[in-house]
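@channel sequence for tomorrow's demo:
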Amino acid sequence: MNRLCSTAFAFALAVSAGAAAMAQVPVRAAGDPGPPLSGYPRSALRAPTPAELKTAAYVRDVIYGHRDGMALTYDVFKPVKNANGALVVNMVSAGWNSSWAPPEERQARYQALIDKGFTVVALYHASAPRFQVPDAVADVRLGMRHIKLHAADYGADPKRIGVWGASAGGHLALVAGMMADDGNSGAANPLERSGNRISAVVAYFPPTDLAALLQGRPKAGAINFDDKLFASVSPILSVDARDPPTLILHGDADRGVPPAQSEAMHAALDKVGVENRLKMFAGADHDFYVKGDPAKTDAYATDAMKEMVAWFESHLRK
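structure tokens (generated this afternoon):
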């Protein structure tokens, strides 16, 4: 994820809306460290210890496609011991900006999953501001095909794959779940012939209906695309009974992505009978931030991570 998730996502929206932007970055109180990166607890926002670095082996810079001559990649974190055969993909995206970092710098963010035996993949997409939301959607859908096709190479079961992301990454996690398919046998790209259905989704404070969120905003950065494409990148419009079990976590005071976005997805999944749960965090803004209360912010972020790990343990482990 980007260095400042809430800033990046707020920028993607606020620039487009000018001074009256809905998604303003929360102002910090004195002594308040501000919103945590992508809703991570502080314990995950640090360099991994030497002991933790020994718990995972990396498969670096796996190329799953190309865009404008540039490689699209992901990194794999394989548990050294007690691998459970399941795999969780993290959508590395903040404001639809997908910022690469060495695996050694990201591992602490995934340690809670690695410690439970999950293989983790950090998936990158073509990034804003050069590329827009539809590009990111196409990239992650392609990336999920590659990951599923090669899951066994990483010691994982292609039938036990989950996806997780926050904010723009949460949107892309829902894209991976709700917009999955069984492949197109007539596709020119052989990879497009492979399916990308998954078995579980966790989304933190995700955009779900891009028309409701962005309609009428001036075009800039990641959202500088034709309004006619809103439907094609809105996972709420692809909900059906084949969708995977989905957990959504959201602050009920979120100014970056209104809670109504998650509430609508929860209702849509309920309507078609898909197992899902929506958990709201009282008084939390974007990134689970509670202004002036860093202890509560961190408690919410810690709780969210525990909920995420538990969801994948429940739905991906044999």
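heads up for whoever presents: Residues 1-7, 14-24 have pLDDT under 50 and may be disordered.
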